Structure formats: C-alpha cells, structure tokens
Amino acid sequence: MRRFVDDRLLVATHNRGKLEEIADLLSDHGISVVGAADMNLPEPDETGTSFVENARIKAHAAAQATGMPALSDDSGIEIDALQGAPGVYTADWAETPNGRDFGLAMTRAHDELIASGAPEPWTAQFCATFVLAWPDGHDEVFPGKVEGRFVWPMRGDQGHGYDPVFQPDGHDTTFGEMDRWQKNRMSHRADAFRKLKAAIGHG
Ligand SMILES: O=c1nc[nH]c2c1ncn2[C@H]1C[C@H](O)[C@@H](COP(=O)(O)OP(=O)(O)OP(=O)(O)O)O1
Ligand SMILES: [Mg+2]
C-alpha cells in the first residue's frame, strides 16, 4: 500500500469509532490516518439512497477539498424482519435535537421488531461500503458485510453505535462485548478492508 503520500491517508469520516477501527486496520500496513474532523472539513449532506452513493459523496468531497486521496465508509445495520431498515438511515435513527442517541435508536429498532410480531432470531447484517476517491475524480468501491442477529437487551459497553445489539454468527457475544481487535477481525469494515487490500496491494 505505497500509493499514499507520506504513508498517511485521509479518512473522510467524522465518526471517532469508525476512524479508530480504520486506523487499527491500516496500522498493520504502516499507514497512519488523519480524520476529516481533524482537518476541519465540513460534513457533506448524505443525500444518497444507498451506502455506495453516500460513501461516494463523502470521499469525493474530501478528496476535492484537500487534493489528497480520501477513504470514506458508509455503513449501517440491516434487520431482515424490518425489510432491511434502518439500513442507509442507521445514523438518522439516532438523531435528536441534542445530538445522536444510539440507545434511542436501538430501542426504536427493538420496538419495531416487537410490533412486527416477527419471531426470534432476528437475523441482521452490518454493511460497510468503503470508497477510495482520488483527486483526479476517479474512485474505487469496496463493499463489506457481516451476518448475525439483532439481540435484546443491549449487552456490552465497548465499541460504538449499535454494537451492543449485534451478535455476529458463530459467537455468543455482541460487538459491544468484544474488544476492538476481536471485532476488527470479523466486522463489516474488516471485510471491506480485505477487498481494499487485495485491490491496492500489500506492503
Ligand atoms: O461498527 C459499527 N458498530 C456499531 N454501529 C455502527 C457500526 N458501523 C456503522 N454503525 C452505525 C452507526 C453509524 O452512525 C451508522 C453509520 O452512518 P454513517 O453515515 O455511515 O456514519 P456516521 O454518520 O456515523 O459518520 P460519517 O458519515 O462521518 O462517516 O451506522
Ligand atoms: Mg454519516
């Protein structure tokens, strides 16, 4: 991965939790990250209706503003019994007049599952689409996912966002109960990262 100037990569996110995970994934390859918030870049409006559309908006905005290659992540949880909701609106479900409240968002998802009458297990997947945008306007897309289930009540205080309600297949702990390294081996972001690595090379 020697295509980045000074082995530093601009990550077009304002989410600290994501930035730390992406920094851990890249650190094995000798690349350090700088976040969009650290460069005082504005948060673009995510007007797309798919992960890839929103990831493109974020990555291109950062690449155009800085002249640096920029990596974005657009992600969310898709709950099968809710026809894939909240999906691309995962962050929106947490919005309140006083900032984001993920406890509220997870409670809404649980309330809607109860109202739907769907039996457990409530299968779900976490999705993350990475877009690497270049200052010349071209980009590369790397989708990732991890299958599991939505569990209730919330368990664990590690991680971020909806981690306390997502239990990946083959594990009896939620992402919220895993340490960062364990989550980073199996997450949707790790899956997208494997594809990015295959495309742009090791080293
Ligand atoms: O590993 C995860 N563990 C728990 N929750 C997660 C994860 N990955 C995404 N999520 C949830 C929360 C996040 O807020 C939303 C994505 O929304 P999304 O617009 O892509 O991210 P964001 O607004 O938080 O940051 P930004 O757009 O600046 O990258 O899905
Ligand atoms: Mg966002």
If you had to describe this structure to a student in words, what would you say it looks like?
It catalyses: dITP + H2O = dIMP + diphosphate + H(+); XTP + H2O = XMP + diphosphate + H(+); ITP + H2O = IMP + diphosphate + H(+). One of its GO terms (cellular component) is cytosol. Its EC number is 3.6.1.66. Keywords: Hydrolase, Magnesium, Metal-binding, Nucleotide metabolism, Nucleotide-binding. This is dITP/XTP pyrophosphatase. The chain has 203 residues and is α/β, with parallel strands linked by helices. It has one domain: Maf protein (Alpha-Beta Complex), CATH 3.90.950. The chain is 31% helix and 24% strand. The chain is built from five helices and eight strands. The protein has helices at 16-27, 51-66, 102-116, 180-186, 188-200, and strands spanning 8-11, 32-35, 70-79, 95-96, 99-100, 122-133, 139-150, 166-168. The strands form two sheets. It has a six-stranded mixed sheet. Strands 4-5 form a two-stranded antiparallel ribbon. β1, α1 (16-27) and β2 form a beta-alpha-beta unit. The chain is globular. The mean pLDDT is 95. The site of magnesium ion has 2 residues, from loops.
